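Review the following:
>
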Amino acid sequence: MSPDHAADPSKAEVDGLSHRHGEGESIGALARRYEVHRTTVIGHLERAGIELRRVVRKMIDDSGSTHPPGAVTDTAQAVVTAAPTFLG
């Protein structure tokens, strides 16, 4: 899909986009491949009735380690502990 055709892609272009998304290619990767914005890709997939995958991003601290959902990092714990002092 060329940028000139981003607003009005051919059926073959939308089919290709849908197929690649179904095969696991990310929205960002599709946007780069077709040289259009991510929201353009999302719009075409939604209009084609394609259910988008939701990506859950991992939270990583400065050390590079990941924390399980709901875990409080040392920095966050320090802020929570100090908050009553600042809030009076």
About this structure: The longest helix spans residues 74-87. The mean pLDDT is 75. Residues 3-47 form one domain.
